[in-house]
Amino acid sequence: MTVVTETLWAVARGLPLTIGIWLASVATGLLVGVLVACLRHFGPALLNVLLATLVEIVRGVPFVVQAFLLYYGGPFIGLDLTPVVAGWLALSIYAAAYFSEVFRGGFLAIPPGHVEAARLLGLKTPQTITRILLPEMALSVLPSLANLAVILVKETAILSIITVPELTFTVSGVGSATFAFAQTMAALALSYWLLVELTAYAARRLERGIARATLGTA
Amino acid sequence: MTTPFLLAEKLERRVGNTQILAGIDLSVQKGEVVGLIGPSGSGKSSLLRCIAGLDPLTGGRVLVEGRVPQPGDGLIGMVFQQFNLWPHLTAGENVALALRLVRRMSRAEAAERARAMLDRVGLAKFADRRPAQLSGGQQQRVAIARTLAMEPRLILFDEPTASLDPELTTEVLDVIRGLAETGMTMLVVSHEMGFVASVASRAVFLDHGRVLVDGPARAVFRDAEEPRLRRFLSTYLQRVAWAPDPEPPATQPATTMSLLGAAPAEPGSFPLLGGEAASPPPPARFSLLDAATNPPGEGQPVTAPKPGA
Questions:
Q1: What's the CA gap between B28 and A168, in Å, rounded?
Q2: Dihedral (C-alpha) A25, A28, A31, A37: value to the nearest 10 degrees?
């Protein structure tokens, strides 16, 4: 096989896992991130301090180190994870910390009167969050969320170090075997770039959709 | 005397070293419309927010019909200066949301009631518009409809027209005036002195977190004796006095100024209460501000010929 076909084959093998782990981590990260932001914004002060500390720790440690710690350190605390699960978990925690800050910013940007009006009308806090605050902030937090999602696409590459057989792992394997480093790395760069462009396109579509739904404009 | 509908006893609120409410006693009977006036920072809005339970008290207590009101218990509705409509929902959805989530109405039922409420404030046709597509006055009327839909026992208005221009103010005040006529119990914080004078049955003047004057609205405005209240009202009258004169009046400035001077004010000299005075009202020199020819709320343009005038 030529280097080209081998590289293409490697891309085909690695891409599904890259996309899979990335989407799963974005989904988990969004969910946990919203939850953390809500608990910090509406929960007791002590919980806010605790969660703030956790977020600071996750943001303060390089992702490579976190992935290493979880995968190689996990067994010491009874957390014996497969590379893929460890990779998904590490990326989700990393994503959640950053997503939570975006949502917290969203909460802070909403005039307090919108919450007070809901409260006086009898809405419960969870109803206020899901029916009023999240839809109201959706459009303004979307660019920041999409930005993070794009960064996370590229962070998946780090998971190759803990032997997750994703895109970087498979393609750089071809490079090591054939010594065609430049060609394989170029293919890798192109693949990630295309993925990011696709994400940005999806974000733009989503933005228009949210604008239509929440503002009534096209 | 019957137990008051709303009883506020020795309300105190202190934030850090700032005394915001310094022992306020207020009792309101059912159906009363109480206008709260006073300079900025006097505690008017804080008083409303404490009664509604949005701001915590550091002393005293509030009872509505003998109960301590909690935010969301349906006793108290509030209309804010900034409307506080939810921008992602249409006018109809703004009114219907609490009906569905709190009253557990079906979607259709809630939408129908929302439409009826919007109709009450003259906005039935605007149910599908988003707040951004409505004027400020229309937004405030939607906010009033949203509050009314939950059938509160008491409505608090916190400077409902302070961010509206004079025309839009008029349409909102008309709605509030209409509500007053239905016997709704209301507390209205407003800088629209003419409105308070004509709609409120009672006026309360606050300064530095205390009640300085509390009495029938007409008496409070006409025979203001409390020096701080006189000073407060006089600045307002000065602005009226600056209004351009359509015809050169001989005695007008003197008449207006008499309230400010040492001489006791004649009842008819207060331009906003001229209509109620026994003496015939002076010719309208600025009809929009003259309650005799144009009660606040009618919104006639200055140049419009008055029927029978």
A1: 74
A2: -60
Domain positions in chain B are 6-75+153-241, 88-151
Q: What is the pLDDT of residues A171-208, one digit of tens each?
A: 888 888 888 888 889 889 999 999 999 999 999 999 99
Beta sheet of B59-64, edge-to-edge order: B18-28, B6-15, B59-64
- Residues near A151 by Cβ (< 8 Å), separated by ≥ 6? none
Residue with tokens 């605007």: B126
Q: Output the pLDDT for position B248.
A: 54
Which residue matches tokens 């906003």?
A: B272
Q: How confident is the model at residue A90 (pLDDT cuts 50, 70, 90)?
A: very high
**Considering only alpha carbons, which residue of chain B is nearest residue A125?**
B72
Rounded to a whole number of angstroms, the distance from the CA of A132 to the nearest CA of chain B is 7
Output the CA–CA distances (angstroms, integers) from residue B77 to A115, A142, B88, B188, B199, in the order listed: 14, 34, 22, 12, 19
Q: Which two tokens stand for residue A177?
A: 């075997």
Best mutation target, B50, B88, B147, to test chain A (most A CBs within 10 A): B88
Q: Are A136 and B146 in contact (CB < 8 Å)?
A: no
Fill in the amino acid letter for B224. A
Q: Domains in chain A, please, with CATH?
A: 3-215 (1.10.3720.10)
Give residue B85's identity as a one-letter amino acid code. L
The yes-or-no verdict on residue B253 having pLDDT over 50 is no
* Mean pLDDT taken over chain A: 92
Secondary structure of residue B249 in the 3-state scheme: coil
Per-position b or e across B267-297, b if 16+ CB within 10 A of its CB: ebbbbbbbebbeeebbebbbbbbbbbbbbbb
Q: How far is CA B110 from CA A157, B94, B136, in A?
A: 51, 11, 24
Please tell me which of the candidates A120, A122, A136 has its beta carbon nearest to residue B86. Answer: A136
Per-residue HEC secondary structure of B23-62 comes to: EEEEEECCCCEEEEECCCCCCHHHHHHHHHCCCCCCEEEE
pLDDT at B245: 56
Residues A119, B54: C-beta atoms closer than 8 Å: yes
**Is B6-75+153-241 assigned to CATH 3.40.50.300?**
yes
Which two three-digit tokens encode residue A9?
């084959």
Mean pLDDT of A3-8: 86
